[in-house]
Amino acid sequence: MLTKWTVRVLLCAAVLSAVSCKLRLEPNSIELEFKPGDKLQVTCFGGTKWRGVSRQCVKSVPNGLMLHIERIKLRNTGLYTCTDGDRNVSTYVFVKDPEHLFAEASTSIHGVEGSPATIPCLLAHPEASNLQLFHHRNGLDQQATFNFTFDRHRGALIYNLTPNMDGKYFCRGVLNKRTHDSSRFTLNVIRVVTELPDITVNVEHTLLKVGEAFAADCKANANDFTVKAYWETDKPHGMDNVELGGAKLIIEDVGYSSLQVLRIRAVTMADKGRYTCYAKNSFGRRNVTVNLDVIDRGYVNITFHGESPVIDALAGQTVTLEVHLESYPALLHWGWLHEGQPMNTSDHRPTCKTNGRGYECSLELLRVKVKEHGLYTFYANNSDDYNSLDFQVVVSDISKGSPKSENYWTVMVTISGIATVLLFAIIVIVYKYKTKPRFEIRWKVIETVRDGNKYIYIDPTQLPYDDRWEFPREHLVFGELLGSGAFGKVMQATAHGLLKSDMATKVAVKMLKQSAHSSEKEALMSELKIMSHLGHHINIVNLLGACTVGGPILVITEYCCHGDLLNFLHQKKNDFRMWNTRLTEYQNLSFLENIIPPQEKKAEKGDYLEMRPRSPGLLAKTQSHDMTPLVSKGITGTGLKSDDTLEEEEDFDEQADRQPLDLEDLISFSYQVAKGMAFLAFKNCIHRDLAARNILITRGRVAKICDFGLARDIVNDSNYVIRGNVRLPVKWMSPESIFHCVYTVQSDVWSYGILLWEIFSLAETPYTGMRVDSCFYRMIKEGYRMPSPRFCTADMYDIMLSCWNDEAFERPTFDQLVDLIQVQLHRDPKKFLQTPGTSCFI
Asked: Do the annotations mark residue 490 as ligand-binding?
């Protein structure tokens, strides 16, 4: 049994051990004051390192380390920190030099735009007062006006660096009524890069003879010092015969530039080809290609303007003989001969204008005489070649041929009449072509918004295209036609190696018809760029890949096996049930109760909720097999499963999809489209053609927003009405879109209300029986709204009416619509039967 003394000894040992483990300084003070020449001794008990201190100034002592400076100086002013792992303790040392208020410190400071920075004005006296920070700008020392604070242990703390904060700084303070300035510090603000560098080369296409020298300068300009210019080539022997000047970083008045020079001292035929200059920075890179042509010897090529070298003229007329020639190297001599003799240039005017390697040469025969008829020869030569071209000039005497003159005027009148008829025909053809309805991209991406609803749209042709989306076209096997329009079509296809090298994936491929114009080709490429710009979402028909080289443009998207929502509702119409006991089979009900608070805004994060039956014994899926994106083509795939698991889930999906539709399905479609549109709104994208025909349904009754665009036969579709030179879906358009051509996210909300009417009427045509004419437009202006559809609840009809508010900004946002419809999914299904003015029992 322990004695009383033993217990006391053990308690003392425990206390001593706890004290020795605590990190502390001796003397234990936050600040210490010394005079120059004093001895500094500070012991750190429990510490293992003095941070930033020379080893010569640190001594080991029992239980710690001692900081020892025999004769302290002004430069020793500052914060000293002792550490032990993640623990630390500090003290600030003032060296009170009577001649200096501030200690010396590093005068070069670097900071990143948007981050904080410290100007290390270290105080040597604790009694300093009236501390200020000065910025040297425009040749003057000016007191800093931006937001900062002064820390007596660290200096001036600047919270948010901007590019205009570059420059010289110093601190000023008062000690004993005397003003003192610190050393001057240089602050370099490193700019955050948000754009690609500019690139220039001094040549674009060069023609040289074997043995001549070639030089090309590549210059890259950017706002950050990481900018770099460099050359590459796709030639088999690479850059073997090329001399590259070292890339130099140049500080410009605004930003930085990098220059690299490519030189070939004596070109050979093997040097012929393309040389690409790249400009890159931390944001990305762009390039410009220079083509080098190499020839064995020079040439002179001459061609004449006009259809024939034989020229008929009347005496007294002025006749012009014109030729075009290409020459390399430059011409040494050129001239005109008449019947093999040099021309009399005092009576006639020969000229020759140069344009690079091209020349435009002419001979003007002023008031030509009959005796000046005959053979005219243009000749030219350079150091390697000689060439010539002959003209035959026939001059008729007008005084001896009056009948011929009358015939001449008859011919001229006839030609003028024919020309007038042809011109009129051309005008009619051009007018018909211009006024012919053209394909227009419906989706618009907003760049900025000014004065309420004055939108500035991004030109989709200027959006970047990442070639990582490219998919080998030979790995596509085409199947049946899914849709066709005046300009393009959509084919079902099988893509081999899209997800795995040994897997075939069913996809949809959008392409142009052979009759499409260049504007349609540009439109399809713009659609591809917009889809890649938007990114991935479960309720959008997602881009999987594309083929843009080596053939016509192909846009590869997810394949949705059940087609569009309009036909899907038609097919299920006769088997519709108002409510069903299978409601618990859907994932959304259990998920909404457990993980989705009603107030949560998911569209801003770009996520989704999948509305599909839960497969017994399987984890809930995030994506179905035929909607999984490319893993290595620009989208990161998630939720990939084994082939056996996919087959089991797909079998269950197909079985569930054969079940009858009920009210919960209609609300589910409404909810999913609202989620997809909220995602588009977050991406600043306006759809402009939101309707059931542009919603596709895939396995698990997942709804996906799309735009058939050029693959829809809008010419024979009564839903599209000609206004101007385009066909528009007028019955789905908001009043501001119809009457003022204003398209906004809130006009998409109006169209969403029409889509809800389609869903809850089971694919009836909006404004049933009404033609789009002046009467229709007048009713819309006067506030007419469609009555509630047959299968609609009171709450859902209230949502429709809120979408059809005359004032665009009084309509709900898509995020609000998601929340409103989400509430409907939580309700008792029997409450859905309370509909306005009619019974929904089947």
From this structure: yes
